[in-house]
Specification:
Layout lengths: L1 E5 L3 E5 L1 E2 L10 H13 L16 H4 L3 H9 L23 H12 L13 E4 L8 E5 L6 H7 L18 E2 L4 E4 L3
Antiparallel strand pairs: 1-5, 2-4, 2-7, 3-6
Helix pairs in contact: 1-4, 3-4
């Protein structure tokens, strides 16, 4: 897929299907990362009030036990408004389901999970663009297992059934969207 046009700031958005997983254990990329993006990264990124960035698994993993304690005690994210007086549009506090997810991730060994399980993938290409006309080419590939199976390889371990293709791939159009500041 190619796109040509004049853009100053843009992101490529790829809606990918999640690979099927045999275990429903909580993983960072599938379950925890969306919570971090929605509830934590507003403050926990370089140059802001959060004392450490929480932008990636590598950032979050060392703080897993501290995050568990902070969310169970409802210290993070900080929210001081009294909920007895109603709901607030800017409420950043965690739902009980989000707390359960974070605690479950820590208690189950804080696994990263496959990166393929990201929600629509966003790549900021702003720094790659030059003034004037730019051409962006997007290549979408499949999972490693599906690539091997498509080449006719038989994947099986002794005494186990053969590996089946994973549910994955591009599930919608690739969009080029401007980033609005």
């Amino acid at each position: 897929m190619s796109w040509t046009g004049k853009v100053l700031t843009a992101a490529i958005i790829l809606p990918l299907a999640a690979a099927s997983t045999s275990s429903q254990s909580v993983t960072f990329h599938r379950d925890v990362e969306p919570i971090m993006e929605n509830r934590c990264q507003g403050c926990h990124h370089p140059g802001d009030i959060g004392p450490m960035p929480l932008l990636s698994y590598r950032d979050v993993r060392p703080w897993a036990k501290a995050i568990r304690i902070a969310v169970l005690q409802r210290k993070m994210p900080p929210w001081f408004a009294d909920t007895h007086y109603g709901k607030f549009a800017n409420d950043r506090s965690l739902t009980q389901g989000e707390i359960d997810t974070l605690v479950g991730w820590v208690d189950s060994g804080h696994k990263p999970g496959p990166v393929l399980l990201l929600r629509p993938y966003r790549a900021d290409v702003t720094n790659l663009l030059s003034p004037g006309e730019n051409v962006l080419e997007v290549a979408v590939t499949n999972t490693w297992i599906n690539q091997l199976l498509s080449r006719g390889m038989k994947l099986a371990w002794p005494g186990e059934p053969a590996v089946q293709p994973e549910s994955s791939g591009l599930m919608g159009p690739v969009r080029l969207a401007p980033i609005l500041n």
